[in-house]
Amino acid sequence: MIIKSISIIFLKIKNYNSIYPRPTFYNNGIVFLKLICDENYEGLGEVSPYAGSPKNIIKNCENIYKRYFKYKKVDLNYVFNLKENSSSNIFQSLLPSFDQAIYDLYAKRKKNSVAGILNSNPLKYVKSYASGGMIFENQSYAKLLDEAQYAKERGFFGYKFRPKMPINNLSHFQRIKNPPQVDVKELEKFSHNLKKKIGDNFKIMVDLGCRLKKSKEIKYLFAMFKEHNYFFVEEPFKRKPSEYEKQKKFFLGVNVAGGEHLHSLKEFKKWTKNKILSFYQPDTNLLLYKEINQMIKHVGTNKIILHNWCSKINFLSNINFAYSLKKNILIEKNMFKNPFDNFFMHKSLKIKKGKIVYPKTHGFGLSLKKKIDNKYIV
User: Does the pTM exceed 0.90?
Assistant: First the structure.
């Protein structure tokens, strides 16, 4: 299979606005690839919006294509071999989108799904939890009670929320670098009301976005998380294994999750060295399918929960990977309407009692709406 051309497509929504905090790429736009092979099959791949600014992502993807993909013969091991021989973080972060595109067009050639290419006997469904809970500091947690109840009624495994965010809605990178404070007492009050609303049999999780800093608040909150039986607490501290080691004495047996930022097996192994995390949250727009399979071999399927927060291509990539596994894993399902969804056509995924049911498709089962092909191509 020879790659003969590429389209690098940048989508941006004009005047996107929401009264609630939303991911910064909803405003900044997304970049994705369309690779075309010598038999004229097309494959789509989505670049992680956190791999850099759209301008830099586009420039780097162009360079990668010209050097490593243009008129090159590729197979399903091609990107894995490229990534293994690279030490560049930027290069490693962008390659998974090329891998997605190659698997998508290869599966279309074989008239099979990506899941079916990865495993001839894919799972029939994957379990999912509802991921929402984003409000500003001047808004009421009461809205999240309704959101959690909605997730429970739809049969999801559980519900994940975030503590209130600053009104100026700092970007993802700014929040990671200089995390805003958490109102500990208000969060505890909400947790109490949440458990009262949804009962003990529905799981709750919280994404702290690296916002805990002081030992006093860490000790207080983890005691509360234990009391309210949180299923996991995601990224409570800065993304450094040493910080987690330092605070581990406060965990009290509470499951701690992280790893959505991991883009290499080398990075992953730093986190597994002292068994710091209860759950790892890889994403197929930063890690290759083969890499996540290696992670599973290292820690076990029950330690993997797929991170899943970007746009339609990446969502279907994650879902197809999950279907391909021998054992069912848990996957994150964004509750919010993604403004870029309308640019794609796809076979609808059915959600039955919180389970995302496998649809038989070719590739990811996704295509671009024709009207955007020329308007948005870089």
Answer: yes
Name 83's Cβ contacts closer than 8 Å, sequence gap at least 6: 91, 92, 95, 264, 288, 291
Residue 196 identity (one-letter amino acid)? K
pLDDT tens for each residue of 11-46: 998 888 899 999 989 999 999 999 999 999 999 999
| Sole residue written with tokens 């209860």 | 278
SS3 333: strand
Dist. CA 70–CA 49, nearest whole Å: 24
The string of DSSP letters for 116-156 reads: HHH-SS--SEEEEEEE----BTTS-THHHHHHHHHHHHTT-
Structure tokens at 116: 């079916």
Q: What is the largest CA-CA distance in the chain?
A: 62
For residue 75, what are its two tokens? 């197979």
CB 288 within 8 A of CB 21: no
For residues 91 and 56, the answer to whether their CB atoms sit within 8 Å is no
Residue located via tokens 């191509």 = 377
Give bridge partners of residue 364 from the DSSP assignment. Answer: none
Given the DSSP bridges, would you call strands 3-11 and 330-334 parallel, antiparallel or unpaired? unpaired
Nearest to residue 354, comparing CAs of 148, 155, 153, 205?
Answer: 155
Residue 359, pLDDT score: 86
CA distance 234 to 335: 17
Q: List phi, psi (to 5°) of 321.
A: -65, -45
Give per-residue pLDDT as tens, 350-360.
888 889 998 88
